[in-house]
């Protein structure tokens, strides 16, 4: 790990002291990083940077857990095709895991999700089946079920499987406990997609750090939890229909148009203390601020969680310690509203800088 220049004149590294037999062995152990400029002075605010996972998001944890749990149970056979509905990050994680382990992978995904996610999965050898955006997450979910049933494929079932919350209880939560073993941890802030991160970490924090307030967030225009309206389900707990409170939103990876079974278990157990809605525009602004003032590169979902953390920080008692989840990298959002207004060509200021010295001008 690099030494800070605050403690040494010369930055050095020492290596990890081990060799890895597979890229999959590098999943997890992501760092908690202090926010130095954007946090209010009266609190200590940290972010857990899940983009350090090899596939660039927290969903690498879920992907390896689903596949290895299915291998252990015998549900997944050697060479069998894996299929899953995804907004992108789970698909990228599964494509990476399946490539390393030798399983064909097929993703179903709405056309509303950023184009680079499709390309990343295909680059990793996956096939991507697109479904109409008007059919929302339910459409791509039902397409995955349909393909699995028709072809005898293994359906990953990220929204229902116990392997989802289990990996976060066994890894993400343990990392947080270790990193804050000698520190207060007054708040833990996260959004939800499948609910796996929230459910797994919250169950451990409730037991090991009961003083930690758990803050859950959802899009301001898709307040499924806040609505109090129940989710219609089939006999196996999967969604039977879109949730009536859902509206399309820009926070990719958050809040599908149903309440997943994985999430529901923790809602029923009252595993959160505060529910804070957030507007996607606030999330985009927070993501840009993290990049430009802290050098931390995360997507709209990370920005949205961070925007909520800033709201919590503003009202927190002096000395409070807050940890916010950053689920993925900003590179997943190049074709999304996050990068609107970011020029590909030189803007007027850059042209003026170029012309301020005599040589090497474009078009000269």
Task: Sum this structure up briefly.
The chain has two domains: 23-52 and 164-231 and 238-332, Rossmann fold (3-Layer(aba) Sandwich), CATH 3.40.50.1100; 59-155, Rossmann fold (3-Layer(aba) Sandwich), CATH 3.40.50. Helices cover 37% and strands 13% of the residues.
Short key terms for the protein model shown above:
alpha/beta; 10 strands; six-stranded mixed sheet; globular; Rossmann fold; four-stranded parallel sheet; 11 helices; 37% helix; 364 residues
* Gyration radius, rounded: 21 Å
User: What's the N-to-C terminus distance?
Assistant: 46 Å
Return the CATH topology of the largest domain.
Rossmann fold
Helix content: 25-40%
What is the beta-strand fraction? 5-15%
Q: Main sheet, how many strands, which sense, barrel?
A: 6 strands, mixed
Shape: globular
What class would the helix/strand composition place it in? alpha/beta
Strand order of the largest sheet: 1-2-10-7-8-9
pLDDT average, as an integer?
95
**Domain module count:** 2
CATH architecture of the largest domain: 3-Layer(aba) Sandwich
Uncertain runs with pLDDT below 50, 5 residues or more? none
Compute the number of helices.
11
Strand segment count: 10
